[in-house]
Amino acid sequence: MNLFSRRRFLRITAGTLAAAGLGPALLGGPRARAAGLGGALQTIPTFCDICFWKCGAVATVRDGKLWKIEGNPKDPLSQGRLCPRGTGGIGATFDPDRLRRPLLRAKVRGEEQWNVVSWDEALGFTAEKMKKIAAEYGPEAMGMFSHGLGGNFLKHTLKAYGAVNFAAPSFAQCRGPRDVGFRLTFGDDPGSPERTDIAHAKCLVLIGSHLGENMHNTQVQEFAQAVANGCTVIVADPRFSVAASKAKHYLPVKPGTDIALLLAWMHVLVKEKLYDVEYVTKHGYGFEQFAAYLEPFTPEWAYPETGISPDVIRETAREMGRHHPATLVHPGRHSTWYGDDTQRSRAVALLNALLGSWGREGGFYIPSSMELPGYPYPAYPPKGEKGKVDNPGKKYPFAHEAISTGIREATITGAPYPIKGWLTYAVNLMYALPNQAETIKAIEALDLLAVVDVIPSETAGWADVVLPEATYLERHDDLNVELFRDSFIALRQPVVPAPDEQKPNWWIAKELATKLGLERYYPWKDIEEYLGHRLAKGGYSFDELKKNGIILGPKVPRTYEEGVEPTFETPSKKIEFYSTQLQEKGFDPIPKYTPPDPVPRGTFRLLTGRAPTHSFSRTQTNPLLHDVMSENEVWLNAKEAKRLGVKSGDKVRLKNQDGVVSELVKVKATERIRPDCVFMVHGFGHTSKGLKRAYRKGASDSQLQTRYRTDPLMGGTGMSMNFVSVELEPS
After folding, report:
1. Which residues pair with 717 in a beta bridge?
2. Residues 681-721: pLDDT tens digits?
3. Quick one: which of 17, 7, 12 has its CA closest to 67?
4. Sign of CA dihedral 645, 649, 651, 653
5. How many CA atoms lie within 13 A of 114 on its CB side?
6. Under CATH, which number does the domain 103-168+371-477+505-541 receive?
7. How would DSSP label each residue in 578-611?
8. H-helix or E-strand containing 627?
9. Class of domain 604-728
10. What is the pTM of this model?
């Protein structure tokens, strides 16, 4: 799908609203009447849950039925606009494939044979299994995987039960290497949402970061502003992405050679003294060793590694230097590629450090959040001596969050102690973790797999009990107190009731706690009492929050230029160009380049990414988003397609190095990708029988990712280690 320009999008939107007799008046008050429609309209503020960005939104209900959703103009994340998937979020409510009633497994795991049961039966079954696990193995033997704010109350219940093993794949399978690389350099990470001041950048560098396809709303809006303001865009990517179409310089870098390119860029900046000398002198530690280390990494050295000519490397480095400190090298998001990802992300951080962008306008601002007291719960049970299972002995010394594949490994091996139960919330582990066979092996070792979700995912297909959650437009969640440029408190509240027997996560967590004999951990009678208590203790008005969906904090300085005092939570209390932390643990104190594995003859490296209309593997049955993009394609270089005798629209199968064969997938023959790799959008090729609309539509990249390389610094799983051949269907 091509990204519309902002102006074209606004023209289309305005034209559509005008044709329907609608307009901004829909946001004007709690009730209104649209000319010519004859239906009472009610607008209710909330915030989106289609991705983790949590954009403020205003939903419109017409005669009691959900009609549409728009951005909340008061919200600093959405700035009054939603992305394509956020706008289509209402489709989740009308999804005919969504879960409707609690289910208990009828036969063996994975056969997707179910008995429909009551909530009392489903939660009673879950609680009895958990009690048995605690009695036989200890409460530490229950693990939880979750994604998003909605998991807060379920985590609370499990912590009250005594569980200690909690993980989100968003760390070890996504942002973890990036966060650790920046922490090792600046003592802090880019955050989530990222603290990037794209709107004021004069030069924006994207290395495998697909703004406009990875549709994080605020960033994409700011990207459009930056381009309109004449910002120089530099894109290094094996694929000519949507963002690359806006670039002054596009560098089709060879996959796996990013560190070589980064070292060569930094060589030029240091050699030609194009870096921010004053900033580095004042805030840097170990710069002399760093500068000496860079000496051999010339653009000529990098050329045969990266495929990028020395002239282009020099010119793009000089472009960055011309605009510092308002040159922003984007930290990226899905950063688990080759197993050396923390060091690659550290190289990105070091390039930003040279340019003086951390804490500066047009670079990385300093975020803040509002103070809001927690609820006064009873203390959790004291933790035992077992500890957590995901990272025994601190094997991965710089992991500051739990490693999801570490919990999976402990479940398979029973070491350092057995994990016998999993509770998953809003995460499809079969698609989120590499090597599906290992995930299945772990599930088969469990005494309990309980899944809380909106849709019948592949992971739900292996569950013992499935607990259907209400969509985000049908429930309250915990308050969102975000670290961002503008501090705020946001409220998610029901817009319409759930259509069947779906329940909000807070209700599921509270009722499960009661079944476990832990009702003392829920002294509030309902979610509004809980939310009201926290807000009152913080001195905020619940009524105001219900009305506006958001309470904004005061404007405060966000950059060093505005008076923020520079602080770096590193051992030296400075920006660490040379990391003694890494050296003491036996790792390279400055990033080292290691050439990637060569592409086997007759195959292509498999690269993956996102689409602006879908989130992970969770939205393919949403009828609105499905109509926009019903299946993915495999991008194949046009010359390679011609050599293989295929053209755009032909269907092929991909076969990976371990003999795994994909579903049929359409070819996109294009010159927009290097000949040594192919590209697929993540999240398609569903095999869950419950996902009727998305069943076997396109191909699953997760199925083909049987190999991965674990990052030795923090345990992230590099997944761009897989190679595929193109298998033609017999005519």
Report:
1. 710
2. 999 999 999 999 999 999 999 999 999 999 999 999 999 99
3. 17
4. positive
5. 22
6. 3.40.50.740
7. S-HHHHHTTS-SS----PPPPPPTT-EEEEEE--
8. helix 623-628
9. mainly beta
10. 0.94
